[in-house]
Amino acid sequence: MARPSAALLQVHISVFLFGLSGLFGKFLALPASVIVLGRTGFAALALGLVLALGRRSVRLRSLRDGLGMALLGGLLAFHWVSFFVSIQLATVAIGLLTFSSFPVFVTVLEPLLFKTPWRWRDGAIAALVMIGVALVVPDYRLGSATTLGALWGLLSGLSFALLQLLNKGYRQRYSALAIAFYQDLFACLSLLVVAPLASLALMPREVGLLLVLGVLCTAVAHTLFIESLAVLRTQTASVISTLEPVYGVLLAVLLLGELPALRTLAGGGVIIGATIWASWPNAKILAETD
User: pTM to 2 decimals?
Assistant: First the structure.
């Protein structure tokens, strides 16, 4: 298999695994904080093993970087907790699709945080995502679990957008795997403070599911995605990553019997279309060859 073809397969597998992770909010009858505690704990162990075997340096260069990683680890913990709360309150489809609104938050926040110029294309994409979210939410009563789930999904998207923007500076000094390791580690440590300790007496089935979620759907998926970027253009991987909610919704239909309403599917189509537009470069996307 040619390297670009192998990289395309890697990124599709990683995005499929990211989409699968949403179903664990339904598979596990645990508080969202406990699910994320297990996910980040197992992910940090797996990533630490990968880094150790590859003899890659993970030493932080300064105390300031350490504090920054700790804060971003807390933000990562909030992102995943809000994501699983969204799915537990509503459905996998609504949780994934409202989280997929994060490009609109990036569009709004990036000019504010980094003084980048505002473009009409960004405004159009933001408007489309807002329309898509409005269609995804079937009920606007604040007492509705579905509405609350959608709001938590939007908070998940907002926190993910902040995480991506604030990680920019660290990507220039550390590898993506090192960043993922430290942020998973600090996310796990932060959740040890707030997770209900009574829920930590887990059954073997629950430990097994958390192991799959942390190692396969987090550490392995993240590693495959990063490795694919050595061959593929970032834009190519970004466009493919818009399939995450598609894979997740299909898996929810097959494994959970959650069939989304036509309105939810229509809103999801608008969100995914807008995200593809946001990820698509002006020139034709092609895989880079050696």
Answer: 0.86
